[in-house]
Amino acid sequence: MKRILNLVLSFGLTGMLVACSSVKNPENVAQEYVTAAYKGDSEKMLSYIYIPENVKAQAGSEEMIQGKIKAGAAKAKEQAERKGGVKEISVVDKNIDEANGKGRVTIGVSFKNEGSNSVTDRVKLIKNEDKWKVDL
After folding, report:
1. 24-135 is a CATH 3.10.450.50 domain
2. Which of 23, 56, 59, 76 is surrounded by the fewest CB atoms within 10 Å?
3. Exposure pattern of 55-87 as b/e (b: 16+ CB <10 Å)?
4. Could you tell me the pTM of the whole model?
5. What does the domain layout of the chain look like in residue ranges?
6. Distance (Å) of CA 55 to CA 21, 90, 100, 129
7. What are 57-93's pLDDT values in tens digits?
C-alpha cells in the first residue's frame, strides 16, 4: 500500500513541476514570439498576440491582423535566411510593471553569417487573464 501511495505522490509532484515550468514569464513570451517570427511561424506568433474584444468585434479586423502577421513573419524569415540563419535570440533589456500588467522586452537577434548586423526587436507586452501576451 505504501508503495502505491509513493508512486501516486511521485506522479503528482512530477505533474506539478511540469505544469509550473510551462508558466511563461514576459521575457519568455517576447523571446518565443521573436523566435517564431524569424522561423516564419505566423500561427505561433498569433497565439502570443493579445487582441482586445472591441477589436475582435470589428468585421475583418482579425483577418487583417493575421495577414499583417503572416507578411511580417515571411519578411523576418527571409531576412534570417539571407544572413545565414539565426545564431542567437536573447533578452537584452526588460522593463516589466507586474502591478499594472504591462511591460517591454528588448530582444537581440544575431545571425550566422560573419559581418551580418545584429538587430533588436522591442516587444510590448500586456498581462491578460494571468497570461503575458504581445500587445500590438
Report:
1. yes
2. 59
3. eeeeeeeeeebbeebeeebeebbebbeebeebe
4. 0.81
5. 24-135
6. 32, 31, 21, 17
7. 898 888 999 999 999 999 999 999 999 999 999 999 9
The grid cell for 3 is: 508503495
The enclosing H or E element of 87 equals strand 86-97
Pick from 12, 16, 29: nearest CA to 130:
29
Q: Which amino acid is at 90?
A: S
The C-alpha torsion from 90 through 85 and 44 to 133, rounded to 10°, is: 20
Per-residue pLDDT tens over the stretch 10-59: 444 334 433 444 558 999 999 999 999 999 999 999 999 999 988 888 98
